[in-house]
Amino acid sequence: MDVVRLVALVALFVLFVACHALLPLSQKEAGDGQSPDHRAEDGHPALDSPVDLPSGTDGADDISRPDGLADLSRDYPPCGSCDDGIACTDDSCQYGACVHTPKAGFCVIAGACVAEKTENPQNPLCELCNPSKSTSAWSPDDGIRCDDKVTCSYGDKCSAGACKGTSYTCTADAAALACIQDTCTGGGPPPWGCVIDAGACLIEDACHAEGAASAGNPCMLCAPAVSAYSWAPAKGCVTTLAGDGTNNPTAHFGVKAQFSQPRGVAVGDDAVWVVEHDGCVVRRVAAGAAEIAAGCG
Known about the structure:
Blueprint: H1 2-22, H2 27-30, E1 89-94, E2 97-102, E3 106-109, E4 112-115, E5 127-128, E6 139-140, E7 153-159, E8 162-167, H3 171-176, E9 180-184, E10 194-196, E11 200-203, E12 206-209, E13 213-214, E14 217-223, E15 227-233, E16 252-253, E17 262-267, E18 272-276, E19 281-286, E20 289-295
Antiparallel strand pairs: 1-2, 3-4, 5-6, 7-8, 9-10, 11-12, 13-14, 14-15, 16-20, 17-18, 18-19, 19-20
């Protein structure tokens, strides 16, 4: 009988040990010193459980979280002095780090204060300080006229912070027009932006030799010294400045102007003066326009 009892006791002891080893939520297997009631079903601490944050290398709590956000409730260490020595910045300590914010109307470029609208000395016209675009770098000032230093281009203006023009070539014009050279002047689209041969005029898309008269008016000649792109009046040639011969004083332009009994003419540096209507009216004629300059009307 004693043997039977002994065998039964041994069996009970083995069963107890086996059950104890298989318990998954025992305090020993939890490994955090908490009872099973303080753990959620997923094995993480329940919301009402105290959690100790790990310490960083500086002795302060490590506030990094798996989602990358900072725990704003921690006490941040002081920054010390945040003065960056730049007069146009507002210096402050935020969340343990120094922050330097440029004051209104300023940029801080390469560690120096730059007032708003100040041009970049290395790229004038096309770059300036524009705090609305950037407070730490030069901003482009597009649309401003400039010079790209390229001879065969025209209409130069700032674009994306650089001076750029429209390229052209005189090759085709030089082949089509005998008085055009294959050399750019930068003065505009061809042929006007190309060099014209000495002693020639380019008028109405045609080449004319110096001294050649206009087919429509023999008193208008090609005179490159006056203009290489338009007719010039010939010396000693009599022509009508204004008026059509009708006796009725009217101030107007060209032949639509009318005079009344002109009595005298005087030539000035920039106009012709006509006395008319028994000396009662003095008319000034310039560039074909006749106007009453003085008189009784």
